[in-house]
């Protein structure tokens, strides 16, 4: 009913601007238009206040006509009758989402296709057209840090987290203020940190990057300005970039790949511990919680020329208690381990020092002209939803999932004398306002037997794929097991660990 009136309205409005010959007819017409307009407005008002009745109008329709802005339209689950250009895209997206893949896979718009239709991308160890075929002796892959443990959360919040991108959305290079940063997204990020209490962002500059990776890069460059030309040939030596083993290997790779005159990878922090007090320029990476062992970390080096890059990718209540807000000069965060959207490649950094901020900003500008506007839109919608309930929903789900996984793994390995896990203590979490048990992103497993110096090989023989200790610059007696992958991956990992631990008991039985 409303639809008809609107159409009349539009026709009439068009006719106002049509040149007419007959002045009298014209006056009559204007009178009629006015009458119709008044009636239409009255009807609109009636419908707005009587939405529960027989009328089919919804807040979505009203938004479409621009007459009312309602932020509740997403939660109201209102009917959708007047969606026009976005309908086909929405139908396409929902049709793909409907493909079930037996609960062991996912279909994507831009994923595999069969006969022109989206096909299932199966989880590891599952196959067949609908991912229903399990391969029994398949190895559990716990290598990568793919944060798919949050996928069920987003599927349960499909309506509030979807975003429609028009064909003409933000085609230009810059935002309206000439920057490469969405100011609205910045506000939401700062609010999120305030709500979670994991970072003090006040008085700090913000930078956006293509994932944390690009920002780590920018940070090294930002903290190692080139020397004055006169110094280059004699007194100058490059800044030493270090991290404490076990550390994330990308720090070394990012430093080495430039082969720069300004900075140089110098390995494990402990080698330099006693030398940095007096002289020497250092950049120390501090990952807190640490990847791979998930311990909260502090810098090792002190001294007037020591600069620190805090990688806080995992400093969220899913993975650790939050004892207090981080408040250092250079802090890096990423969507990847917060919402699980590793594929969006979006991260941010806070820098206190203006000169450092400017050098980082200039690097980001030269390197990629800032973070993708599409990624920023996605981040905006997702984070807006996260902060809406003071971030309870996401972190309660995330913590519960990670906590349960850790407890199961711990229980399974508690029977073992051959393997041990890193020790993590319960701590008071200022976000949950209670003491929370460990819920690490990774298990840092040690092979205890003398002969098991290659822990990766021991696990590989038991059909478990881990990441070698040497990748983190420590002995191969250690391996990292990822606990943040999807449920199928975790279930299979736990199953294989149980098998391995039960084998351990058998020789004992024989000796009795
Ligand atoms: C946050 O940082 C600002 C600026 O450095 C400082 O004034 C404020 O006291 C800090 N807040 C907390 C809670 O530490
Ligand atoms: C550094 O100094 C401390 C004592 O100040 C000493 O115990 C330690 O062994 C030294 N470390 C290295 C790597 O030299
Ligand atoms: C944004 O990107 C443009 C390139 O289009 C660059 O010229 C400009 O310096 C960037 N602005 C900032 C604030 O980084
Ligand atoms: C499991 O957790 C308990 C309590 O924190 C701890 O004492 C035990 O050592 C853990 N087991 C393993 C295998 O790390």
Report the CATH C-level class of the largest domain. Answer: Alpha Beta
Q: What do we call the CATH homologous superfamily of the largest domain?
A: Type I PLP-dependent aspartate aminotransferase-like (Major domain)
Spatial extent as radius of gyration? 29 Å
Detail the poorly predicted runs: 1-21, 50-72
CATH topology (level 3) name of the largest domain = Aspartate Aminotransferase, domain 2
Number of helices: 16
- Identify the CATH architecture of the largest domain: 3-Layer(aba) Sandwich
InterPro entries: Alliinase_C (IPR006948), Alliinase_N_sf (IPR037029), EGF_alliinase (IPR006947), Ethylene_sulfur-biosynth (IPR050478), PyrdxlP-dep_Trfase (IPR015424), PyrdxlP-dep_Trfase_major (IPR015421), PyrdxlP-dep_Trfase_small (IPR015422)
Cofactor: pyridoxal 5'-phosphate
Domain Alliinase C-terminal: 140-501
Domain Alliinase EGF-like: 84-138
Characterization of the model:
The chain is α/β, with parallel strands linked by helices and 512 residues long. The protein folds into four domains: 2-82, no CATH class; 88-138, Laminin, CATH 2.10.25; 183-228 and 236-392, Type I PLP-dependent aspartate aminotransferase-like (Major domain) (Aspartate Aminotransferase, domain 2, 3-Layer(aba) Sandwich); 397-511, Aspartate Aminotransferase, domain 1 (Alpha-Beta Complex). It is 38% helix and 15% strand. The protein contains 16 helices and 21 strands. The protein has helices at 2-16, 23-49, 59-64, 73-76, 87-98, 151-156, 158-161, 183-196, 211-222, 250-256, 335-338, 354-368, 373-388, 392-414, 455-461, 487-511, and strands at residues 105-107, 113-114, 117-118, 120-122, 126-127, 133-134, 140-141, 205-209, 239-243, 263-268, 282-287, 306-311, 330-334, 347-351, 419-420, 427-429, 434-436, 442-447, 464-465, 467-468, 478-482. The strands form seven sheets. A seven-stranded mixed beta sheet has the order 8-14-13-12-11-9-10. Helix 1 (2-16) packs antiparallel against helix 2, helix 9 (211-222) packs across helix 12 (354-368) and helix 14 packs parallel to helix 16. The longest helix has 27 residues, at 23-49. The chain is globular, with a radius of gyration of 29 Å. The termini are far apart. Residues 1-21 and 50-72 have low confidence and may be disordered. The structure holds 2-acetamido-2-deoxy-beta-D-glucopyranose (4 copies). One 2-acetamido-2-deoxy-beta-D-glucopyranose binds at residues 270, 273-274. Its cofactor is pyridoxal 5'-phosphate. GO terms for molecular function: carbon-sulfur lyase activity; transaminase activity. Residues 140-501 form the Alliinase C-terminal domain. Keywords: Membrane, Pyridoxal phosphate, Transmembrane, Transmembrane helix. Residues 84-138 form the Alliinase EGF-like domain.
């Amino acid at each position: 009913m409303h639809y008809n009136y609107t159409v009349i309205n539009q026709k009439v409005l068009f006719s106002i601007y049509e040149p007419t010959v007959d002045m009298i007819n014209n006056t009559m017409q204007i009178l009629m238009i006015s009458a119709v307009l008044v009636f239409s407005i009255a009807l609109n008002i009636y419908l707005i206040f009587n939405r529960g009745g027989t009328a089919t109008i919804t807040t979505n329709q009203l938004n479409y006509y621009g007459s009312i802005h309602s932020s509740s339209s997403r939660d109201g689950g209102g009917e959708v009758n007047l969606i026009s250009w976005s309908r086909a895209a929405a139908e396409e997206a929902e049709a793909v989402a409907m493909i079930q893949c037996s609960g062991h896979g996912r279909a994507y718009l831009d994923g595999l296709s069969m006969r022109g239709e989206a096909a299932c991308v199966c989880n590891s160890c599952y196959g067949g057209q609908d991912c229903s075929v399990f391969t029994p002796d398949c190895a559990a892959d716990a290598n990568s840090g793919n944060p798919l443990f949050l996928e069920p959360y987003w599927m349960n919040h499909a309506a509030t987290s979807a975003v429609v991108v028009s064909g003409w959305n933000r085609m230009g290079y810059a935002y309206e203020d000439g920057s490469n940063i969405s100011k609205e997204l910045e506000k939401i990020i700062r609010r999120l940190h305030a709500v979670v209490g994991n970072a003090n962002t006040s008085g700090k500059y913000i930078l956006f990057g293509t994932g944390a990776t690009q920002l780590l890069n920018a940070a090294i460059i930002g903290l190692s300005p080139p020397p004055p030309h006169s110094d280059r040939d004699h007194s100058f030596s490059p800044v030493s970039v270090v991290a404490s083993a076990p550390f994330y290997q990308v720090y070394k790779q990012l430093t080495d790949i430039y082969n720069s005159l300004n900075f140089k990878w110098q390995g494990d922090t402990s080698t330099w511990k006693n030398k940095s007090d007096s002289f020497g320029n250092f950049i120390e990476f501090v990952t807190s919680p640490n990847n791979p062992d998930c311990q909260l970390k502090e810098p090792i080096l002190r001294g007037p020329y020591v600069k620190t890059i805090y990688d806080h990718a995992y400093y969220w209540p899913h993975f650790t208690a939050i004892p207090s807000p981080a408040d250092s000069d250079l802090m890096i965060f990423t969507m990847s381990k917060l919402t699980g959207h590793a594929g969006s490649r979006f991260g941010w950094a806070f820098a206190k020092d203006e000169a450092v901020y400017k050098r980082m900003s200039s690097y980001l500008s030269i390197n990629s002209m800032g973070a993708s506007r599409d990624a920023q839109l996605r981040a905006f919608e997702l984070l807006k939803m996260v902060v809406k309930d003071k971030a309870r929903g996401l972190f309660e789900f995330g913590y519960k999932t990670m906590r349960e996984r850790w407890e199961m793994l711990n229980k399974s390995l508690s029977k073992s004398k051959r393997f041990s896990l890193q020790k993590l203590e319960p701590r008071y979490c200022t976000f949950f306002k209670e003491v929370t048990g460990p819920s690490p992103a990774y298990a840092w497993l040690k092979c205890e037997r003398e002969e098991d110096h290659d822990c990766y090989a021991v696990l590989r023989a038991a059909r478990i794929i881990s990441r070698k200790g040497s990748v983190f610059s420590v002995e191969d007696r250690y391996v990292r097991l990822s606990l943040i992958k999807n449920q199928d991956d975790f279930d299979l990992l736990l199953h294989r660990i149980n098998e391995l631990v039960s084998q351990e008991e058998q020789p004992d039985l024989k000796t009795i």
